[in-house]
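Re: the 558-residue chain
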Amino acid sequence: MRRTDQETLDAGIAAFGRLLDLRDGYTSRHTDEVAELSLLIARRMEFDPVACRDLLTAARLHDLGKIGVPDRVLHKPGPLSADDWAVMRCHPEWGADALSLIPGLGDVAGAIRAHHERWDGQGYPDGLAGEAAPLAARIIAVCDAFHAMLSDRPYRKALEPAAALAQVRDGAGTQFDPGVVRALLEVLPGPQGSSPAAVANVPARGREPRLPRSAEGRAAPASGRRPGHALLGAFDRVGRLAALREPHGRALDLLSSGEPSIELVRLIESDVALTAAMLRIAGRIDPGARPGSVGDALTLLGPDRSRKVLLAVPTADFFQRVSGWSVLPEHHRLHALATQKAAERVARVLDRDDRDQLLAAALLHDIGKLVLEDAYPRYPDAILAGAVTPEQRVQAERRELGMDHTLVAGVLLRRWELHPDLVAAVQGHHDADATGAAGIVRLADLLARYAHARTVDPAALLQASRSAGVDASKLRAVMFDLSQPMDPVPRPLEPSPLSAKEERVLRGLASGNTYKGIAADLGLSTSTIRSHCHNIYNKLDVMDRANAVLLAAERGWI
């Protein structure tokens, strides 16, 4: 760029800055300081001079779009409403659109547009994840958030520098690029003359339970990060685990029909992420309620709020990579479902009246492993190398990390404000003397491994069975049952009196679909579906859909 062109551009940038100053004095001062800090990080990350200049321009103008935000929103003295946020979230696009009209500022506009994206893909306006957002934008995002925490605003007081840095540090890997956060810690002097390393060790939450160190006094070096830091970030990411698209879509369809049912509960219970999301959000509704099952969660949330919770859950298809996860945790879901199936069989044998809570505990029993997989790159392969049985693997976790996945799960579920009995069942399921719900989950875990032909210590299985109150004869029956289909499909013994179209309608009813949904699937009108149902009831000599489905299923017609 020629000198005169650069001078003209610099003058234009200064003019934009003056407009921001006239619009909002805080925004102008904020952008100057964000720009200075961004430049320090860029130099630390060895940006070339051109990249440094573009980053500095983007940082100075990252809030340019706020010129278009109305005063009632920009200067609101309290927290913003949902409608206010809808307006405020437009400012990255507005600023980028304005700068994109100036030749040579395409990269600057791109950085401005993306400076509210998040590392985990939950930001705006485009939901970019990881390195999909420009590095300049990721630097500005960290500096923008850090400086905002240090500033007094009408609706809250500024944080102390150590507390602000701790919050930024704990957002590494979720909200922020970990590399940029590391660079920030390296370029800033610590509070009161302490080093950046000392700042990095400031706890973000004073009331957070302290996680243990290993017996040798080592602080779990698996990932090169402090355990508290790694685990707190992993807690957040596991709370936003992606659900399988199929059960997620079916559950939404059922909620849209306005007919919550046991089918909805089963759909949610078929997916670890759906169950975790419903329980986690329901736990915030009433601190005294503490949900212990999916049914509890649905009751606390109600249909409308349950739908909103499900809509907020990210989804993934089979075999699809999920941003932020090195592998799709499909193996975890399959083992969780197998354990849930085993727990249901054991609960049925023992005639337990807490089956719903047991099913939730069984589904979440290994959620601590997901936390460890996220927090420590060497887990499980290097950490559990040579450990085969569940007992050996837990001992390896304790030896190498100073904790095991059950302890981590207990901390996580308490943070979610879940029922103490549910938490105890999950946290205690690897105790050698576990009884009650924890003992049932322990036995179910071993039975699920056996059913999948994985290594199980027979002595440990027998001991767990005795602790759970299941004698040898009942254990044999459960082990055989688990090798059989959960709901074997009956073979038709006589021809069906229904037409092919009537059978399709009845299958739709059996799946919980509504008349309107069945009509859409078959390309028919709702009134035609009602006529088919009337004919079905007459042919089968039943009064309603429930009896029609039951009879047709028993005879193998659907």
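The chain has 29 helices and two strands.
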